[in-house]
Amino acid sequence: MALVLLVEDEWLIAQDHAAVLRNAGHQVAGPFRDSDTALAEISAAPPDLALLDVRLDHHTSIPVATELKEQEIPFAFVTGLEGADIPDQFDDVPLLAKPVGPEHLLDVIARLRDDPSRRRSGQSSGT
């Protein structure tokens, strides 16, 4: 199973997503409410995958997305906002609309984990 970085500022959604991931056998890093803490975690222990809420209080998760993309760590955005302000460089990143049901969340995690085009060099799909 995968180590999934979870960046979400809404407590109830964060706890729900974390529980779904853990119940499916994944490890969860976080949930983190802000980009700075998430970036520190990526530096300390890079995850296999990540789920990022686009808007975090008065900030966005774009700095985290940039770092994940640079490290070739697969991730998906999660948002409750239609037409969220996501830079064009992330056009290839999956976008999940809140609320996200458990089956859909796990389906996206499986696709991120198993898609060779979204994996870091040298990372196997058995992670």
Plain-language structure description:
This protein has a domain at 1-49 and 60-84: Rossmann fold (3-Layer(aba) Sandwich). Helices cover 35% and strands 22% of the residues. It contains 4 helices and 7 strands. Helix 2 (35-44) packs parallel to helix 3. The radius of gyration is 13 Å and the shape is globular. Mean pLDDT is 89; it is low at 120-127.
Essential attributes:
127 residues, alpha/beta, Rossmann fold, five-stranded parallel sheet, 4 helices, 7 strands, globular, disordered C terminus, Sig_transdc_resp-reg_receiver, phosphoprotein, Bact_response_regulator
How much is the radius of gyration in Å? 13 Å
Determine the oligomeric state from the structure. single chain
Structural category is: alpha/beta
The number of distinct helices, counting runs of at least 4 residues, comes to 4
The name of the CATH superfamily of the domain at 1-49 and 60-84 reads Response regulator
Query: Low-confidence spans: pLDDT under 50, at least 5 residues?
Result: 120-127
H-E order: EHEHEEEHEEH
Note the overall shape.
globular
Main sheet attributes: strand count, strand direction, barrel closure: 5 strands, parallel
Give the terminus-to-terminus CA distance. Answer: 5 Å
Mean pLDDT: 89
The CATH architecture designation of the domain at 1-49 and 60-84 is 3-Layer(aba) Sandwich
Helix content: 25-40%
How are strands sequenced across the largest beta sheet?
2-1-3-6-7
Mind telling me the CATH class of the domain at 1-49 and 60-84?
Answer: Alpha Beta
**What percent strand?**
15-25%
According to DSSP, the number of beta strands is 7
- Within the CATH hierarchy, at the fold level, what is the topology of the domain at 1-49 and 60-84? Rossmann fold
Keywords: Phosphoprotein
Modified residues (4-aspartylphosphate): 53
Domain Response regulatory: 3-113
Protein name: Response regulatory domain-containing protein
